[in-house]
Design brief:
Length: about 130
């Protein structure tokens, strides 16, 4: 297993007048969908398709539920989900109200064990398969 990359030339968004540089960009083959993941779970565990599907679907429903109740949702050593809020600044505390929120987003912070596994993966240049 390796992380695949391609080399692309890009301009700096901070300095559009600078000469473009070459960067290594992650390249995925495709996305793994819910059914693929469930079938993989069924193949590699003692779970039935319905049991695995129920687990995945409940996780999907429970994350927003517990986030809305004010919790951070930790999934064992895999990591945790939390919410990040971006808002406009206010000069005085009384002006800092909910209407100043510009964006809310769900953030996943990967756990230390998985982060180490990913960081230990080698990288190799992606070659097109015809």
């Amino acid at each position: 297993m390796a992380i695949r990359y391609v080399v692309q030339q890009r301009k700096s968004p901070k300095d559009p007048t600078a000469n473009p540089k070459y960067y290594l960009i992650n390249k995925s083959f495709d996305a793994i969908d819910r059914d693929f993941l469930i079938n993989d779970m069924v193949t590699n565990t003692s779970l039935t398709f319905n049991e695995a599907a129920t687990g995945i679907d409940y996780l999907f429903k429970s994350i927003p539920k517990y986030i809305s109740l004010g919790f951070t949702v930790k999934i064992g050593r895999m990591g945790y989900f939390t919410v990040a809020i971006k808002s406009e600044g206010s000069d005085v505390e009384e002006e800092a109200t909910v209407d100043k929120i510009r964006r809310k987003r769900l953030v996943f912070i990967v756990g230390r064990d998985i982060r180490k596994q990913i960081n230990d993966l080698p990288a190799e240049k992606h070659t097109k398969i015809i």
